[in-house]
Each structure stands twice: as structure tokens, then as C-alpha cells.
Amino acid sequence: MSHKLKIAGWISVGALAGALTTVSLQTVARGSLAPLPLEELQQLAAVFSMVKSDYVEPIDEKKLITDAISGMVASLDPHSQYFDKKSFKEFREGTSGRFVGVGIEISQEDGLVKVVSPIEGSPAFRAGLKTNDLITKIDETAVKGLTLSEAVKRMRGEPNTKVMLTIYRKDENRSFPVTITREEIKTVSVKGKVMEPGYGWIRLSQFQERTVDDFVRKVEEIYKAEPNLKGLVLDLRNDPGGLLDAAVAISAAFLPENVNVVSTNGQLAESKFVYKAAPEFYQRRAGSDPLRKLPAAIKNVPLVVLVNEGSASASEIVAGALQDHKRATILGSQTFGKGSVQTVRPLGPDTGLKLTTARYYTPNGKSIQAKGIVPDVMVDESEEGNVFSVLRTREADLDKHLGAGQGPEVKDPAREKAREEARKKAEEEAKKGPDARRPPEFGSDKDFQLVQALNQLKGRPVLVSKTQVVENKGEKKEN
User: Fold this and answer.
1) Chain centroid to CA 479
2) Can you give the residue range of the structural domain that contains 233?
3) Where is the composition biased (Basic and acidic residues) (predicted)?
4) Which member of 235, 245, 324, 447 is catalytic?
């Protein structure tokens, strides 16, 4: 097929990626350009000349031009972006699921870097780092005061170079240095297990190049352990998205062949396209269907899809397709609302442009942009409720966000009231210790939403949310 489904998204060294990851199409530059506004370009040239000659101190010409390009693109929407050499390299690393580093999933706690989990087989894993270890220094730099992204950059580097991490292990009440040699890390975006006899759980943390193959292997493992699977939970919570072809493949794993998965629409002819549940729309190598090894029973197993405010982009494609085809019950909270497609075009050997070129639509023609997927069953993240979810940033909260293209967006006063109440409660919660505020791990027996998903599969009562508000519910739909 003519569409090359390629690059998308950002990923930190295991830090939970924000919900701005992009669903993208990799294409070549257009053969013809639109007519140029000569008068405006003359003004741009005049400003450039005046800044260069009159500014208080000499200006780097290349930087001035780069900043002008960056500003022009950034003014469009939150997802269009100019890539310089460094950011283009990081962008490519994020979509491949490969990077050079020590191999740990991390978060932040009390200003320090906390090890959520060492990636199995990584240098950090072999060095003996454990879950809940705190990193206090990276080489000679104290972690206190660094942002998580700054800490990530210091731990990354070139292959075969060394980095010394100072570790504080709380349960042993001791600090010690560990010298680790960096190497290429392959992140694992799929986890899963048999939760209890007859019921499985598969979690996708991001849609990367290896996601589909890892998904197939995990499904095979679950069916080997539990051949008589009665129900499956597909967990897309906090999955910020990624590659479009991976989203189409995961949808196709559960849907009948050749049904519509997602469509895109924009100005360009190549932006008007329908992606179906068929190998030619997601396979990376000719004649090789990555889903061919899946057990046939996966097409009919009762399915619940878990989503929340952090489920974005490719996650929303999967949830929307399975919801529209009535193949799964969508359970959780309203998703992020990232329903636009970005095309990545190289501008040279190591720079590029990521430009929003289309919106995507569910099989029933609904735009998710700035709205998201509304679950069939709204369930809070804990038994106490979901009050803090309204404080989380969603697509509709972003400056210059693209509209849905299906009528005006309607502000919901009920949500503004809920946000104010949540802010007050957040101030009270902040006075508690970090252990009291920490949510349970996804996939654990204390994972409230997962327990409700299993109840849904078993036909048992589900504790439905009494507080969640659907955003933009008054939005008009085009006929």
C-alpha cells in the first residue's frame, strides 16, 4: 500500500509518557507547493535583516531562522513541531522502542528519581537495581532539583559509556554507588498475565514498532496457561499512543476481517483514507501477517477495554473501533481526546517537520479530537472516587488545540465546579505522606478499575461512578 505507517511519539526512559504522543504517517514531501505570499515573505526578510544588523549584539543567523520556523509551526496546534538535529534523534528513538541508557522505568518521589522497575535483561537489571530504589546522584550531579527529563538525559548517552548512580535503598537504610555501562535498551510495551482461572489481563503502555509482536507472544502465553479463557481485559490506561499501524493491528486482532478500524480526513489526497482490519493495512513486511499466530478464540473472547484520561491517540483508535463494532465494553474514564494525525517530513538528513495533516474518525464517523472516547461504563480509579481526574490535562485544555470539526465545543459548568472541588481536596491530600497518596499498581489485586472490569466479564455488579462528568457532551454533530 502507498501509505507508510511510521514515526510517532515521545518516550522518556520509562517515565510515564505524557498524553501528547502522536499518531503519525511518514510521507515524502509534496511534489508541488502552494503559491507563496510574496509581500509577507518580503516583510519576513526585512525583519530578519533588521534584527541581524540592528540588534544590540550579534545574532546567530542559523538560530534565528530555526527559531522563526519553530515559532511558525508551534503557533498552529500543540502537536505540530519543527525538529532540530537533537530532537529528531530523540523522536525516532521514542517510536522504535529503543534507546541507549541504563534500562529503568522511573518516576519521581520527594524530588528524587525512583526506580519503578528495572527492564528485564538491561544493564540496571544486571547491576541489581530494585523497585523502589531511589537515585540520589547521577555521576557527580545531585538529583534533587533536577526535573525528571533532565535526569533522564543525564542517564542516557553513547553505547559503552559509563554512568555512576548513587542509590538509596530504603528497606536496607543504606546508600551505595553503582557504575553501569550504557547500552541499547529495548523497551517492553506489553505486559499480561492470568488474573484468576478463566480470566486474563493484557496491558499496552505504548504503541511501538515491537508492540504487535509482543502482544501476540503475550496472548499465546496467556492461552497456554489458560486454554479455556472466559474473558480478557485489554488495559489501555495511561497509554499515550504511538504508531498508527500498531493500533490498526491490535484492533484487527479482535475484529472481523476487513471491517473499518479508523479513517482520516484532511486537505491532502493522501490524508483521506480508511484503514481496515486486514494485513495490508498494518503489516510491515510483505506477506508477513504478525497476527497469524494468534489463537482463533481471540476473535470471540468476551472483552473489556480499560481507559482513562491518559489514554490518547492510538489508544483511542483501538477503543473507538472496538466500541463502534460492539466488540468490547469500554470501561473507565473519558479519554484524552487526541484525534489528529501528524505527518513527519524530513527537511534534510537530520531535521524534520511534524505537521498536523488530518483528523481521525471512528468507524461510525465520530471525531475524537478534543472530546475523547466516552466509556460504556464509567468507573472511578478508586472506591473513594475519581475526583482528581478532572484536574488532569486533556486535549481540550491545551492552548491552540484543534477542534473536533463537528460543530462548536461547549463548555460544561458542571466540570468547572468539579475542578474547583477537586482542587480543594487536592490541597488536603497534599498534607498527607507520599505513601498515603500513592495509587495501587496497575494489574495488582488492589487495582480497583481492573477488579470492576473482571466483575463486568463475570456478569457481577460493577461499582459505577456517580461523579464523572462527560466533557463536551453538548457538542453538535454534523449530519
Assistant:
1) 31
2) 190-342+359-458
3) 409-448
4) 324
